[in-house]
Amino acid sequence: MSMKKAIPEFKSEAEEFEFWSSSGEGADSTEYLDWSRRSAPNCPT
Fold first, then answer.
1. Domains in the chain: boundaries
2. What is the pLDDT of residues 9-32, one digit of tens each?
3. Lowest CB count within 10 Å: 4, 12, 20, 41, which one?
């Protein structure tokens, strides 16, 4: 998946949660990731 904008570095998981959550700034992931180029995960079974 290609990146559009650089994802900021976070000091804690709580800070990252606040960044992505709708209760905080609610960053739109489409500004950071190109979801049209996503691929299925490769998980061994």
1. 1-38
2. 999 999 988 888 865 556 788 888
3. 41
